[in-house]
Fold Aspartyl-tRNA synthetase 2, mitochondrial.
Amino acid sequence: MWSNVGILARVLSRGTAWHVPVVVLSRGWKRVPGARRLRVAPRTCVPCRASQSTAGHNSFSVRSHTCGELRSTHVGEVVTLCGWIQYQRHGMFIILRDFSGLIQVLIPEDESRAKLKEFCDVPVESVVKVMGKVRRRPAGQENMNMPTGEIEVCAETVEVLNVCQKLPFEIKDFVKKTESLRMQYRYLDLRSSQMQYNLRLRSRLVMKMRDYLCNKHGFVDVETPTLFKRTPGGAKEFLVPSRDPGRFYSLPQSPQQFKQLLMVAGIDRYFQIARCYRDESSKPDRQPEFTQVDIEMSFVDQAGIQALIEGLVQHMWPDEKGSVSTPFPSMTYEEAMRDFGVDKPDTRFGMKLVNVSEVFDSTDVPFLRDTFRQPGGCVQAICVVNGAKHLKSKDLESIKQVALVHFQQEVSVVVVKTDGTWKSPLGKMLPESVKQSVHQMTMAQPGDLLILAAGQQDVVRPLLGKLRLYCAELLEEKGVALRDPTAFHFLWVVDFPLFLPKKEEPGELESAHHPFTAPHPEDADRLFSEPHKVRSQHFDLVLNGCEIGGGSVRIHNASVQKFVLEKVLKEDSSLLSHLLEALASGAPPHGGIALGLDRLLSIIVGASSIRDVIAFPKSFRGHDLMSGAPSFVSKEELRPYHIDVKWPAAVEGTEQ
Amino acid sequence: MWSNVGILARVLSRGTAWHVPVVVLSRGWKRVPGARRLRVAPRTCVPCRASQSTAGHNSFSVRSHTCGELRSTHVGEVVTLCGWIQYQRHGMFIILRDFSGLIQVLIPEDESRAKLKEFCDVPVESVVKVMGKVRRRPAGQENMNMPTGEIEVCAETVEVLNVCQKLPFEIKDFVKKTESLRMQYRYLDLRSSQMQYNLRLRSRLVMKMRDYLCNKHGFVDVETPTLFKRTPGGAKEFLVPSRDPGRFYSLPQSPQQFKQLLMVAGIDRYFQIARCYRDESSKPDRQPEFTQVDIEMSFVDQAGIQALIEGLVQHMWPDEKGSVSTPFPSMTYEEAMRDFGVDKPDTRFGMKLVNVSEVFDSTDVPFLRDTFRQPGGCVQAICVVNGAKHLKSKDLESIKQVALVHFQQEVSVVVVKTDGTWKSPLGKMLPESVKQSVHQMTMAQPGDLLILAAGQQDVVRPLLGKLRLYCAELLEEKGVALRDPTAFHFLWVVDFPLFLPKKEEPGELESAHHPFTAPHPEDADRLFSEPHKVRSQHFDLVLNGCEIGGGSVRIHNASVQKFVLEKVLKEDSSLLSHLLEALASGAPPHGGIALGLDRLLSIIVGASSIRDVIAFPKSFRGHDLMSGAPSFVSKEELRPYHIDVKWPAAVEGTEQ
């Protein structure tokens, strides 16, 4: 077939007793005609179908085995394999690859070898089908680095199913490619063993999560719409023009409203592996679409949701990554900020923040003393163990730079010398007793580095929190084994504030998470008097210093929800009238959580970017480098949507 | 708690020996403070948590049982239930409902009854928590229509968790609601037992499909992007403006390109329960987003894909709907058009088309004779068994009307009278022998109805195909049991044409399905000489006359794909350059299928619309009646996307 497009088809056969190699150099797909034309009659078996097993990776396929599954137990079996030519050796071996691994195929050495020459010219990455017998490799030729290295397949027929015409890069794990090239030719990049592992693991873990939620705990998988109404303040929501002039759908950032409505609807336990959208052009490394494991339950409290998630993580956790013990440790938001300077602490290492204010109370260094005497003022320190030993003065300078650039703040970087004295301008200003107290409180030893910062607590904490992580990276660059790359530290952070002062207008409040979060029961009465002091029933799940999930108990009372929207947040509650009406129609107490699936997976596989666990990610700038999306469309195509492009030159001025 | 918003909280307790009813009329959610504040320590057990079982519907919940699971085996157990008040009886019973069913709760009759009066005033659909002991109902008071009807729960405490303030309609299965009201208050509509069943069945069946594909056959669940590049001719794709001026993403109609690229990437077996988008404003009853079960395999042929799907349907099929036998019957497109006048025949009944041209060859009725003597001309008939008996002359008239309105064609509707003569103007024109031949060929009997149409075959077939279905509906309206409502007739339709003449320009060809479909192997050579005669390797899965899936073997050869795009379809192949490059980079032979999940589910549950198997569907006009989407957005919100609305008055003329 395909003869009109100039296909080179050749059948070479020979007559030795034990095998008849047939090499078909064809780009067509060999199919036996008329295999399926009879009505009702049992399906005609297609002769080229090597396997009709009822399960496994080879069911319904023309192959009998995958390349990687063959072992010495298969010796003597006639197998049919399909795969890609990984490479050729000595003009007599081809290494065939499929997703499961590699296998060596021997093109038998005999008088027909000359005829096989053409076959050996078929480029790597071409697709072939091989039929032949599995045999043990001759003694001494085994390759113990290869799972199939004890055996090889002695080809009887080889058929080229598709010739690989060109490749922008080789499909070898050791070949380095720029990320933009990987993105442009994603279909080749995905052939790498790492990307195959990542995508297959993702599928496997998601399946185990579904099993846990659906089969074990009675959750209902409900699909919610992605063409929805713009939410108040939904600046990060993509818009989708409709054919009704001026009306737009919006791609929601999460199914938050729908999951709560499903609880009002009596679904009781909902989950969805939900596609979410966020237009964050300002942020680097953004993915405009991402996936979250979205969960909501009725008649549950915070502890119940946390226990559910601990069980979920334990159930889905891959064996090859060790085990996860539960319950996960928990700390309050206040403790996290106090000890780690961040609400998502990386607890794989210490280097905690220490409040050393008290020892400076009695000193004569005015800027220190005055600072911490102001309301909210403090002096805090972190001790970088062996920091003086590993870090060069260039590194110490960069630490100061980070503080200056990100926080416009100076820090003192103190080298604790072998004799216990301080190498720092501060050393001369402070009496020995103060330095000793600081050593005691921070447990600093000779050879360590002390970083001291003075100022308002809400600046000093995040500043030292950032420097703590920065120093960890510096030390690891020097080869210090600070964080175990095989360790997974889960942590709950609880008791977040319900509201935060607005950045632009600190006199006003905004939701720390979202306006549907319920107040902490201990603080419930304060909601009406001192809302800024109210803690919430929000909780975050943190893994190795990354927030991988956030959950909360929701407000289920319509009047409380209305109070929060109108009185605290000063928002137009009519935009959420459908939700308020739902809460007034018999809403059960409910709560839930959303886990960031991409982030979780990337940590599990140790990827540096979530792009490595997404099949077709967008680039750093939100572009699809393979197809060129987003792309220009014609004025004609915009007409049905009643929109027109305002080109930048025209944006601020007149219409074009 | 919530005391500031005026909550009526009351605790009534009394001191009898065997129970202490506590009625808490509170809209707040009772929670024990400080339940979770300790770090690392084992989670503090919340006293109100009735069950900490490790699996099932009540794990992690404050209830111990669901309402519907209680049976006489639970007698004597103290249980905690949460649910909605379905109704109250005699001021002493409440019927509590959750997703699992109903249970009767007895408010014990004793001296405190007066105090309970207030509780009895709580409106239906309020949410309550009841703790009490299961007991056998007094003899004679059992309700055998209720699965829990042998028992009742004798309340010890009752807590009102949320008061239902208002309801636009009652949550009773027998209450009829308009569909727009159901859509506006979808969260109430979903409380009905039918909608609960539909959504839960959907979740269950999807889970079984995943189990079959992922666990049994090695498929990999891969999420593909929904923000993609507009495909050539993608008039039905929604556009999503990006922040790059003039550039748009597009919401794809299916993951077709991605699934093929995944095969090139060596994923080997892909599936996804994929959200798809289609902007079909012109069509009624559209859903702008819908879900398909999307499958692609490498190294497979058409028979393999069909066998996979038969196994899938069998595996997921719900027990309560009988069994499905495989393989499914199969017929060619030509057979389907010939016998049923449609490419998705409803094979639950006969009434097949019969070509009666030959008997009119010798007649004197010129318009009949001349018609079928033209190329493609024919006279065809369907016989409506007992049609004359059941259908009135008004019905016969409506049959003619359908033909006129939809096909601008006249048909002869012939009543075969008890004496075998024809009641029809045609009866007088035709000799008896012709009528006898028609009777023989159509197997018409006295009391039947014959519908005859003459004309071009490609008009007559769909015309009679439509009238066949119309007559079936008419007969069923009269109470004739034509189609078994519990029967499920699966059917493969195969050997579709690869190309069809364009409607606007019949001299040009367009893809019958999509340009990636491979030609039928028997017709492969014709592709280059007579493409209009080429059959494809496309196949449809039909259930009860609805197309529920379409699959094909794809073109895996780059030059064939290029030929089809450029030479046959006259399209700009550069818009698909990424796909052509991929095919040239070692694409394996591959094929796949997509099943319409919404449609399949709606047929299984017997719903009249796919809206009944979607949690939050759009209305007939594509609107979300609950939230009001799509909605207006401000000029300010459009600014980041560099677009402007062209209001209709301005569309054709100048900018506004």
Chain A is about 25% helix and 20% strand.
